[in-house]
Amino acid sequence: MTTKRLLFIFQKNATEKPVMSYLVRDYNLEVNIYRAMITPAEEGYLVVDVTGSDEDIRRGMDYAKGLGVTVNDREKGLSWNEELCTGCGNCLSHCPTGALKIADPATRRITFEEQLCVECLNCIPNCPYGACSSIFRE
Ligand code: SF4
Ligand code: SF4
């Protein structure tokens, strides 16, 4: 069994489809919705932990994509803008997983490791320069 954290992006005409229910019923997947948002333009964003066999996950994601849903396993909710990052280090003690860390102690250059990010969003209010942002928080 594998668990993957995935970002689902539903365009307006796909938000009413019970995609998650079908993933459970027809593809033997467990789904745990971690974050959800529908914009005023009726686009839907879900961060979901999907658990199942690799084959069932692949089939389930093919099904979702066939409905026009974008499934993204790299970018999730959090964006880090390297150009805005001053290397102040304020976020580091607020990031529970070390996704934001010092890459080079000599220059104090910061890096963001997407795979480690658990979307806690702690870094957003703790970045004085607006380098961290999320589709789930204005
Ligand atoms: S959202 Fe949380 S885990 Fe991800 S980079 Fe920010 S503080 Fe770290
Ligand atoms: S708080 Fe913001 S500007 Fe400071 S190191 Fe973290 S991401 Fe960069």
Give your account of this protein's structure:
There is one protein chain. With 138 residues, this protein is α+β, with helices and mostly antiparallel strands. It folds into 2 domains: 2-72, ACT domain (Alpha-Beta Plaits, 2-Layer Sandwich), CATH 3.30.70; 78-134, Alpha-Beta Plaits (2-Layer Sandwich), CATH 3.30.70. The chain has 2 helices and 8 strands; from the N terminus they run βαββαβββββ. It has helices at 19-27, 54-66; strands at 2-10, 30-38, 44-52, 70-72, 78-80, 100-104, 109-112, 132-134. Strands 2-3-1-4 form a 4-stranded antiparallel sheet. The chain has a two-stranded antiparallel ribbon with strand order 5-8. Strands 6-7 form a two-stranded antiparallel ribbon. Strand 6 and strand 7 (109-112) form a beta hairpin. Helix 1 (19-27) runs antiparallel to helix 2. The longest helix is centred in the middle third of the chain and has 13 residues, at 54-66. It is elongated and about 50 Å long. The relative contact order is 0.19. The model has no long low-confidence stretch (mean pLDDT 89). The structure holds iron/sulfur cluster (2 copies). One iron/sulfur cluster binds next to loops.
